[in-house]
Design goal:
By secondary structure, the chain is α+β, with helices and mostly antiparallel strands. The chain has a single domain, classed as Alpha-Beta Plaits (2-Layer Sandwich). The chain has two helices and four strands. Strand 2 and strand 3 form a beta hairpin. It starts with a strand and ends with a strand. The mean pLDDT is 98.
C-alpha cells in the first residue's frame, strides 16, 4: 500500500496525522504529506481510516 496526498485539494486539517501519525504529517507548507513510501503492515488500518476521514478526499492509497 502506497499512501499519497493530493496537495491541490488538501486543506491541512491534520485529521490524517491524528489518525495515522506514522504514515502522514502536516508539512512546513501547512499541507499533509505521506512520510512513508509503503504503509507498514501494522499501520494499514489506520491509513485506511485516515483516507476515509479526509474531508476533501485528498488521500489515496494504492
Amino acid at each position: 500500500m502506497k499512501p499519497k496526498v493530493n496537495k491541490d485539494i488538501c486543506i491541512g486539517c491534520g485529521a490524517c496525522q491524528a489518525i495515522a501519525e506514522k504514515v502522514f504529517e502536516v508539512g512546513n507548507d501547512g499541507l499533509a504529506e505521506a512520510i512513508v513510501d509503503v504503509v507498514p503492515e501494522e499501520e494499514k488500518e489506520n491509513a485506511i481510516d485516515a483516507k476515509e476521514s479526509c474531508p476533501t478526499g485528498a488521500i489515496s492509497i494504492e
